[in-house]
Amino acid sequence: MNKYKLKYKPLGSIAILIEWPKIIDPEILLNIRLFRSKIQSDMGEFVLETVPAYNSLTVFFDTGKIKYYLMVKNIKAIYEIKRQKLLTAYKLWKIPVCYDDEFGIDLGLMAKTKKISKEKIIQYHSSTIYDVYFIGFLPGFLYLGGLSEKIQFNRKLKPRLEIKKGDVGIAGNQTGIYPRVSPGGWNIIGNSPINFFDVDQHPPCFVVAGDKIQFIPIKKTEYNKIKKAVSAGMFNVESEVYG
Amino acid sequence: MDSNILVLSAGMQSSIQDLGRKGYRAYGVPISGAMDKYSAILANKLLNNDEGMPVMEMTFVGSKILFEDHTLIVVTGADMSAKLNGSPIQLNNVYSVKTSDVLSFGKLQYGSRAYLGVKGGFLTEKILSSYSYYEGITRRSIIEKGNRLEIAIYDDELEITSSKIKVKKSHFNTEKLEVTKGPEFNRLAKDQREFLFSKYFKIDSLNNRMGYQIVNKFPPVKNNEIITSITIPGTVQLTPSGKLIIMMRDCPTTGGYPRILQLTDIAINQLAQKKTGDLFKFDLEGSFSFLSRLVSKFQD
């Protein structure tokens, strides 16, 4: 597991921020995931929650039970253990997206600027398998890695006041899905009828860091059908298990 | 049978808060919870409640509340000239209220946020192990006129053995907010650090449960975006335009700006009682002993 030189920093007095090299890399995602699961299993009685991001893992711990320096020492020791069995299992989620003009309101501008057809943009966007690095910003907002360079597109200078729930967007080298209505500067290329956050489900988000997703283009009629099924609680997102 | 209160007027940004929604950050769910935890906990302690029971948070302008059942109440935090049936009542003092009693508030005397505690706590919906209101998580994100809120049933005799508590004025008017170094503190040049610890900073009108913006422009910083990483309440972020934003209880779980300082929990409570135009200084010295303790042991 000890393949990177990590930095350990206090985050306030309640957490330890562990930092990996400052790059976005699927190998780092895997390493963070493995370390996270080992910390949870080996130090469970002291750990309150663990929060991954692109190149960091934050461990909130019970300061009443263990001192900061001792927690760091134990965690460091866990990282140094050489383990052969790697945690590689993940789910690939198939996320239906309707890229019709009605939803993909910025596809036209992107196609014109990039000098490629809308169909090509959709094809690039939906043929990639994206890594889910972590969930942050809003409840159920997935940080995805792997957007094709061919369709990377700068954030809008003037953010829209309202981006709809389910809108699929592109900002720089990132693509993502808005789990709820929010202001935002992303270029919107489609909409997914899926709920990414539901307080009545446990856990509230069906995707976890380390999973992968693929966008499946659907027609408006299919979109409406899925939307109805989702609101009736009758739709299961298709997934494949790997590893 | 339930016990309830009826909201006759909403006040400003009033909401139900406990000590936060813990354990769901990895799903992007903010911590939330009372902005001034000290005052929320004090309300519960005075009522002999568990310290994490849900209380009502009111900001600048208090709500007007009709009690539909009898219970014990206490108001802590900011002084908003609380009145029970029109007669002034004291902060940090437990009162018994009867059916049809009305609690109202008047002029804000000091502080920004007041807390109403009731015996046994508010029993509004508990979502993801917390009562704290948050848009998209709880059905209500703000208390509105006409809302009927459930409270714990209180059947005992309305006898009060009150120990009067005096809260230090410094909780509301301190100019020093204790901080520790944030993860990107070391990116700051010497003159920037001097700026940070010599100036008084002024709170911008953009301040709410999510964060407080600061009026003073910070000297430009090169290379000042980070790969998106964690933010927690009290994190001080420096934006590319040189603006400082102090994250508060409802802040997003992640952010993309350098985190140059981190307020202690006490400092967050104190900032929660400040308002637009108030001045303060960042106090790294105050927390120095704390940090050096951490680091020296850690380096062993």
Describe this protein's structure:
The complex is a heterodimer of chains A (243) and B (300). Chain A is of the alpha+beta class and 243 residues long. Chain A has 2 domains: 7-80, Gyrase A, domain 2, CATH 3.30.1360; 90-242, Cyclophilin-like (Cyclophilin). Chain A has 5 helices and 14 strands. In chain A, the strands form 4 sheets. A 5-stranded mixed sheet of chain A has the order 7-6-13-5-14, with helices on one face. In chain A, strands 1-2-4-3 form a 4-stranded antiparallel sheet, with helices on one face. In chain A, strands 10-9-12 form a 3-stranded antiparallel sheet, with no helix packed on it. In chain A, strand 9 and strand 10 (174-177) form a beta hairpin. Chain A is elongated and about 55 Å long. The mean pLDDT of chain A is 94. Chain B is of the alpha+beta class and 300 residues long. In chain B, the strands form 4 sheets. Chain B has a 7-stranded mixed beta barrel with strand order 12-19-16-17-14-13-20. Chain B is elongated and about 65 Å long. Classes of the chains: A alpha+beta (243), B alpha+beta (300). Chains A and B meet through strand 1, strand 2, strand 3, strand 4 and helix 2 of A and strand 15 and helix 5 of B.
* CATH fold-type name of the largest domain in chain A: Cyclophilin
What percentage of amino acids of chain B are in beta strands? 25-35%
Q: For the terminal residues of chain A, how far apart are their CA atoms?
A: 18 Å
Poorly predicted regions of chain B are 296-300
Write the layout of secondary structure elements.
The complex is a heterodimer of chains A (243) and B (300).
Chain A: E1 7-11, E2 15-19, H1 26-42, E3 47-53, E4 56-61, H2 68-80, E5 90-97, H3 107-114, H4 118-127, E6 130-135, E7 142-145, E8 160-163, E9 167-171, E10 174-177, E11 182-184, E12 187-191, E13 212-217, H5 220-231, E14 239-242
Chain B: E1 3-9, E2 15-17, H1 37-46, E3 55-59, E4 64-67, E5 71-79, E6 83-84, E7 87-88, E8 95-97, E9 102-104, E10 110-118, E11 148-151, H2 170-173, E12 176-181, H3 190-198, E13 201-207, E14 211-214, E15 229-230, E16 235-238, E17 244-247, E18 254-255, E19 259-263, H4 265-272, E20 279-283, H5 288-299
Parallel strand pairs in B: 12-20
Antiparallel strand pairs in B: 1-4, 1-11, 2-3, 3-10, 4-9, 5-8, 5-10, 6-7, 6-9, 12-19, 13-14, 13-20, 14-17, 15-18, 16-17, 16-19
